[in-house]
Every structure is written in C-alpha cells, then in structure tokens.
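Same chain as my last thread, 559 residues:
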Amino acid sequence: MQRLIECVPNFSEGRDQTVIDAIAGHIETVDGVTLLDVDPGRATNRTVVTFVGSPEDVIEAAVRGAAKAAELIDMSRHKGEHPRFGATDVCPLVPVAGVTMEETVEYAHQLARRLADEVGLSIYCYENAALVPARRNLADVRAGEYEGLESRLQDPNWQPDFGPATFNPRSGATAVGARGFLVAYNINLNTTSTRRANAIAFDVRERGRVKRTGHPLTGEIELDENGEEVWIPGSLKNVKAIGWFIEEYGVAQISMNLTDIGVTPVHLAFDEVVERAAARGVRVTGSELVGLNPRDAMLEAGRHYLRRQQRSTGVADAELIKIAVKSLGLDELGPFDPHEKIIEYAVAEGGDRLAEISVRRFVEETASESVAPGGGSVAANLGALGAALGTMVANISAHKRGWDDRWEEFSTWADQGKACHDELVTLIDADTDAFRDIMAALGMPQNTDAAKAARDEAIEAATRRAIEVPLRVMEVALSSMEVIGAMAEIGIAASVSDAGVGALCARSAVMGAYLNVRINAAGLTDEAAAAECLRRGRTLQDQAIAREAEILAEIERRL
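reply #2:
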C-alpha cells in the first residue's frame, strides 16, 4: 500500500506572486511529492499550499518550503486579516493512506525538530501532535498573534517545544500539528432559498442553532445562568455547515467542512442531509467535493450504498467508486474524474508499473530478454488471478436469485478474496523492485574497505527483501484458498469449475514463489536466517498442496 501523508502549510504571504512561486518551487524540488494546490488570498495576505507524498519526502519538502519562507518573508512588515504569528504560520500533517494518526504525530515531531534545528524556527506543536495539553487548540497557541509573540516567549509557560525561545522578528514562530483529513463538501438542493438551506445546515452541523423561546426563528434567545446563549447541537459531529445560494448553478447548497471524516464521513453527512431536507420539503439533488478526497473514503461510501442495496461489496475499486459517485450525485454539476479528485490516483506512478499494463504487454515483457519481470512477479500475478476467481464466485453467489437472504454471507467472502487479490497485485511489482534493489546493491563501489562493507550490507538487506516478498506471496495466496475452498463447497454450482481453476492458480503461486525463496536464500550470508526462511516456505507449500487436494476433491464431488 502507498504510504501517503498530506501537508498543508500556511505561509504569511498572499500578494507577492514571486515569493509565492519561489516557496512552491522549493517544495516541488523534492521528487517524491506532488503539489496539489497553491491558494493565495490577497485580503488575508496568506497562501495555503497543499502537497502529498511519502512521509519522508513530505517532511523534506516542508523543511525546504519553510526555509525559503524564512528567507523571503519579513513578518515585521506583514499585515493581513487572518490570525498569524509566523512566516510559515502553521504546518499540519494529515494521514492519507497507509499511515496511522499515531505515526503522523511522530512525523510531526520529526518535522518540528528539523524546522528548529535546520531553519532556526521557534516551534509549537498543536492538535494531535501537542506535547503540552494547553497547546492542543491552535487558537490558544497563536493567541496574541505576531504582535504579542515577543512577550509570550518570555513567559516560562510558553517556551517553544522546539527551537529558540528568543524572538525572531523576521520569521516569528510556527505551529506544527497532526490532524485528521478535512473535506470541503457541498450538497445541492432543489431550492433557491438560502434560508431553507441554512435551516438544514443548522439541523446537522455540530454547533447547531441558538435556542429561542416561542418561534424558532423570531423568538427571544435563551440565556443560561451566566448570561451566555444556549445552543441546540446539531446531529453530526465534527461538521461545520452553512447554507448559501450559488449564482453559477442557480441552486442553494449546504456548504460543509467535515473536520474528521473518521467520525463523520461524506456518505453519512449526505444521508443525514437527505433526511433533514426531506423533513423540510426540500430534495437533495447531488453533491460536490471541493478539492481531493482519500480513496478509502470513496471506497467505503461505495460499500455503504451497496450494503443498503443488499449487494456484495467485494467488487473492484472502480465499481465501488462508480457506486459512490452515482449515489452521492457527485457528477451532477460536472464530470467526476477519479484521477483528479482522489488523492492516491492523482499522485499515482506512471503506467510502467507491471500491475498497470495490459495482459498482452505483461506477457511480452515477461518473454523479452529482460530478466524482470520473472518467475516471482508471474507467481504473484497467478495468485492474484486465483484469488480473483474465488472472489468472482462469491460475488455471483451473492446475487443469485433465491439466495437473497445469503447476500451478506457471500459478500463477506468476497471482501476477503478481494483483500487477497489486491495485495497480490501490489506484490507483482514488489518482486521486480526487490530484484532491482539487489542489482543496485551489486553495482555499489568497492574501492575502499568502508565502501565494500556498505556494499555487503546493502546486498544482504536487498536479499532479505527479495525473500520476504515471495514469502508474502505464498502467505496471501494460501490465505486466498480459504475463500476458494468455501466457494467450492457453498458457492453457486454453475461456477464450481471457476473455483477449481482458482485453487490450481493459488497452489501454483505458492509453489512458484517458494522457488524464488529458495534461490534467494542461497545468497544470504546469515545461514540461520536463510534456514528459517526455507522452513517457513516449506510449511506454506505443504499447506497449499494439501488444501488444493481438498478443494479439488470437493469440486469433483459437485461436478
């Protein structure tokens, strides 16, 4: 799985395009990051930059961007409407794929330390990365803004988490955080009334609406014993929302910020607005994602709507995304291109990856004089096909007439099979990458004792990776046989032969991958490690052969 985090630094310059371009250009010098957006604001005199990549590459890009901002922005001359206290004012990291929030917090601390040590910035950590509970809220961290920073730095309770505690009039201070993914999301209504849209927004947003006595719109505002307004909370957590009229489309929308899609994802927000709008005589006609959305959020939306239809969710990602787009009406106001609107697709590597090329090209590439792809990639591909056949039988069985009460049973099997073939597809390229790592290590210089030692270490590490990849192919292909075996026993009778082919593929994938384990284990200098890899491989191969025999016996009985 791709490991991706997003970084959304806010720089205190929104008017001088030369400065903005220079900062963005320094961020783009890191090969592993994709610059998604540069959004300057003249009134706020602030630019929000969004980029994504692997955690290590994102941290490097953030350091380069902040260094350029410290060089070009003079906070002593800065004026703007937005709260701020530094040239690089805030720099949050956001987990996107393959990275947990706990890991993102650690990356935020790494970034904070580097900004302090390499750029000389005074750093406060906030949100999930806060090292001091009182600093979790950004507004508290930035209280007093730039103008109050010099005196605040003299307060023992407000010493920076990293970096100097002395006031730097040019760069000020920077807040580094880790937070959940924020989605800007608009829901379209069949009305032109901003008032109606706002009423629905107040129904659902976490803050809700102020409580009134008598009429809900014109009644007197209720106050508590401290003289503060009493609020009636809305139905959705971590949601901000207002209603507005969009002249371009001629309709009212509910404009929402979903500040934690782990708590309130897009599809649940949509469903809640549909229900609340209907109660007010208004119909939802579609919706609009502003910016990009993580792939997992779209896939879960697709699964959500398939479950409501009592259909199997173990279908291809493209089908899940199609269901999500149609169910949410994301294409009502214009085409929805997953390659532009889903982060992982927007930053995907080019078409030279083996998993992305056509079957014909894969076969021809395998047959060419090149030594990669070889048996390891073919074994992973074969395993993916076997798992896919088991998944197919589960999906067909879930949709069989007369088996409506069993759709969830088969959907669970299909989900399990899909997880197997998805991982095996990634292992097609992982095997070739491991081989290339070995070749790169072999090509390292040997002109000194230190260089030779570094080369030997790199070869050993690359060889270990070249063993672990086929071992993982064996494990996943064997796991897929659980699905294939279940479908051989309980799946639709007309597809029992497909389950049989799946079993043959899975067993062959395991045996083929084991050949790769054996040939690579011979290259390990650590004999104990080599012996353990061979033992693991033999055990997996024996299990696959035995399981194949059981599955084929069951298929023979049903045939």
